[in-house]
Amino acid sequence: MANLQVSGIIEKMTGKDKDFRYMATSDLLNELNKESFKLDPDLEMKLSSIILKQLDDVAGDVSGLAVKCLAPLVKKVGEERIVEMANKLCEKLLHGKDQHRDTASIALRTVVAQVAPSLAPSILVTLTPQMIGGISGQGMSAGIKCECLEIMCDVVQKYGSLMANDHDKLLNALLLQLGCNQATVRKKTVTCIASLASSLSDDLLAKATAQVVKNLSNKNAKSEITRTNIQMIGALSRSVGYRFGTHLGNTVPVLISYCTSASENDEELREYSLQALESFLLRCPRDISPYCDEILSLTLEYISYDPNFTDNMDEDTDDETHEDEEDDESANDYTDDEDASWKVRRAAAKCLAGVIVSRSEMISKVYQEACPKLIDRFKEREENVKMDVFNTFIDLLRQTGNVTKGQTDTDESSAKWLLKQEVSKIVKSINRQLREKSVKTKVGAFSVLRELVVVLPDCLADHIGSLVPGIERALNDKSSTSNLKIEALVFTKLVLASHAPSVFHPYIKALSSPVLAAVGERYYKVTAEALRVCGELVRVVRPSTQGMGFDFKPFVHPIYHAIMSRLTNQDQDQEVKECAITCMGLVISTFGDQLGAELSSCLPVLVDRMGNEITRLTAVKAFAVIATSPLHIDLSCVLDHLIAELTGFLRKANRVLRQATLITMNTLVTAYGDKIDSDAYEVIVVELSSLICVSDLHMTALALELCCTLMTGKSCSENISLAVRNKVLPQALTLVKSPLLQGQALLALQGFFEALVYHANTSFYTLLDSLLSCAKHSPQSGGVPKQALYSIAQCVAVLCLAAGDENCSSTVKMLIEILKDDSGTNSAKQHLALLSIGEIGRRKDLSAHTGIETIVIESFQSPFEEIKSAASYALGNIAIGNLSNYLPFILNQIDNQQKKQYILLHSLKEVIVRQSVDKADFQNSSVEKILALLFNHCESGEEGVRNVVAECLGKMALIEPEKLVPALKVRTTSPAAFTRATVVTAVKYSVVERPEKLDEIIFPEISSFLMLIKDGDRHVRRAAVSALSTFAHYKPNLIKGLLSELLPLLYDQTVIKKELIRTVDLGPFKHVVDDGLELRKAAFECVFTLLDSCLDQLNPSSFIIPFLKSGLEDHYDLKMICHLILSLLADKCPSAVLAVLDSLVEPLQKTINFKPKQDAVKQEHDRNEDMIRSALRAISSLDRISGVDYSHKFKSLVAEMKRSEPLWGKYQTIRNE
């Protein structure tokens, strides 16, 4: 039936009437697009023939439809028919009539685009030789050559790797066309060679490059041919990325030579040269290194290249008071339509940006040499170039932020310090731009200022006065666009938030008027930003309630009325509503004492907003701000309604809303507890009991803190105490048994038990018994986890101290009795008793209990390891309570009890760690004895002992740095490897986040310890790598000067060392052991930390290849770390990753396609799934890099993932995380 219908259509397609032919061709197109449409061989032949014939139809719309019919037809006919059609189309293109050539070309490109990949080789065999003939054949017109070049461009992009045998012949034909006289042919040739380059072998790529360089060396060539060859070099570099690096030695000097020696009018040649150099910088960062200084000088020379214009204006005569310069003659009035020098300046600006983003190690040099020039070029007369100059300067500021993360701006060699010296020049130059007529220029100027404040938050304190007029103009000028107003407001908000309030006080009147006017703007984004600025303005106008000599009262009511008009308006965007609520909360909190009459009208509106699901959360947070106000705002008109609403929110499913509600309630109860009805409290307590659970510890902590506030408040009644005991206490006793309890939730739980005894009249002994019972073994739940016992012990200690000395003493006696009852059957009971004694002893001197230390030390004999550990913990903590009494006892025991040394060393560690945290000193005699004892155990054969000793020495170094640092340094040259490893590990433990006296003492000696990274013993090397990683994380400034020496040594530790791989013969089978695995893992982790904290000292390109690449193919654990490193590099150094992306695709592809053996256990399958997800995260990070599309290998990887439904599903989930 379908075939009969098609036969009728074919008949009409050959008719004389043009309309009949058009309708018939349209019907055929509809039929071909149907999934169910099938063709027999006879019909295939007829259709192919008729459609090819229709391509020559005199009616253009008919031939256009025939081309469209080819797309579905190619998918439905066989290989023989497709080859036949391709041949006929080639014939039409190469030898047909001129008027049919365009149609034949489009048809051929359609066939190439739609043919199935499995049939592509058959078409390429016939198509490629004919196209090569069309490109290089004698007598071929420029039109034919252009069509053939476009078709071959499509072919090599899609099937370049399938036609390797034709690469040489095709390349030869294309290279000849670079010297063609027609510009269009040369242009399309450049595009075609660039498309072909990504699939060329290294040898053919070298051949292509050599030919182009040879063409360039011909000084007699026409200038347009030279320009084409320079374009070709840039296009090759962009196409093949890092692979072009080996050819830079031949190409860079040629480009620089042409750039400097070109004639004055040859701007395009200079532009193309600079564009090629920019491509090298971004795609070949490792190989371009020797030329970076020369390129930097070149960009600085040409960024101001303007031979047709001389700027006689002297910027130094500019004064900020000359605000009306718009009518004066300036550089911007000069125009010359034939002047193309702006192209050179734009290319130079972009090339300089390439230096900045790809060479983080050159940032200081860029500041010294390029920064003044860039600031000077803000005066650029061509607006598009000016935007590129602004963007380049923004790149410089962002790179400064990246490489100086965590650094101060006091170091004279740091980029931040260098930037600080230029601030006044930047502001002066930007102020001139803010007085320009162009809106685009002003938007760019505010973008620069915004980025400047992000990098140097307090740098504009001395320049606010000069910037305010520019902000005023941007907000008040009728010609200002919404985009300009938003940029000005965002900058104003940032600058208000990052500077001291007193800086702005002279300019509040000038700033507030345009900002409050912007609050009334119609466009919601402007209004929302203006409201956010108002929030900062409120803080600035009245930074404290004590008064600062600034009269804020004239600004209170204008700000209030502007915000109130937005708050009461219901018909507006959600963003505006939320900003108005937040801002009104700040206004009431800050100006409440000046808004007596107005409070009764605005507070009910805020409470009303809590009834709306969209604005509910924002309103709750606004009341938290109001409740914490030092002005004690009168909330009596809304308090009952407010508490009722908030209590209802505790039952809502929205977790964020419940958290905000708990915080707000806590502040309200603290400030207005005596004004809240006690019945409301009882309802709150009931609601709180349902929020206390181990599955949400953050919510639990907030709920317990609110409970404590309720119990400690003035309005705490017996009913409230009873409700807490009945409803909340059972939940708390369940919670304390959880092994997950930690952090803020544990502290809140301790405060809860303390409040129960202090304020809620709860029996101490009842509570104590309940807590101790938590540790009992039950048939249903089994034993209590070890971590839970520590939580219970801390709660017991807090409870005892809250109950007074008498109760505390009796509890300790009871715990001692438990220890004496050495039945050996209930280890949990003894375990808890020891931990509780330790927790109490740490908080209180227990020397009144004679012999407690000997009773504790007897538990060292226990057959249970957890009891021994708890006894060690208890002994150390008891000693903290009274050092003079118990420390000598511990030291004596370590000397005399050889078998118990490890456990006793743990007790000593508890003492030393606590002293280092509390910054307490030991007696001199004790220090000498401790050090002698610790150094004696440095060579211990037990790794556990050495680790404890190292931690003790590290923490002792914080207490006595003058003694420890020299003593540790001496032992770095010890013949015993264990000693060297121990002292380096000790240095690692001495590094803490807070500033310490130790820092300045150890700084000159750090290299003695870290240079052990080249030690002959792998344990010492691993300890040194771990120490370097810790320094990089906590104190990067201490090691930056050493990184040039350390990095090559560190990278070497990431390489597989064959001498560390051994085979263990286990009889039936052999097992391979890699002793270097842990060292490599530590080295990669160290690199990850360094990339995060010391990026300005690293050259990522030298690490990615070969070290990161080898890590991506290494052991499972290392692959996971390398995926993280790759994601970090993709974010921070995208150009370095992009340059070598093709070589990273293969290891990632192997990882995501790896399948475990059929007999693999579940753990292996789970581990492989984790590995695949890790690799997909890295691929997701790579996919976000701008310019990743240049890598055909990466594109084919993503295409392959799309074809695998399970893999693509996982990838999409990761993308959406």
Number of helices: 60
Overall mean confidence score, pLDDT = 87
How would you describe the shape? Answer: globular
Q: Characterize the biggest β-sheet.
A: 2 strands, antiparallel
Uncertain regions: pLDDT < 50 for 5+ in a row?
Answer: 313-334
Q: What percent of residues adopt helix (DSSP H or I)?
A: over 70%
Q: Between the first and last Cα atoms, what is the distance in angstroms?
A: 52 Å
Q: Note the beta-strand portion.
A: under 5%
Structural class label: mainly alpha
Descriptive account of the structure:
The protein has 1217 residues and is mainly alpha-helical. Helices cover 70% and strands 1% of the residues. The chain is built from 60 helices and 2 strands. A two-stranded antiparallel sheet has the order 1-2. A hairpin with a 4-residue loop joins strand 1 and strand 2 (1070-1074). Helix 3 runs parallel beside helix 5, helix 42 (883-896) packs antiparallel against helix 43 and helix 58 (1162-1183) packs across helix 60 (1205-1216). It is globular and about 115 Å long. Residues 313-334 have low confidence and may be disordered.
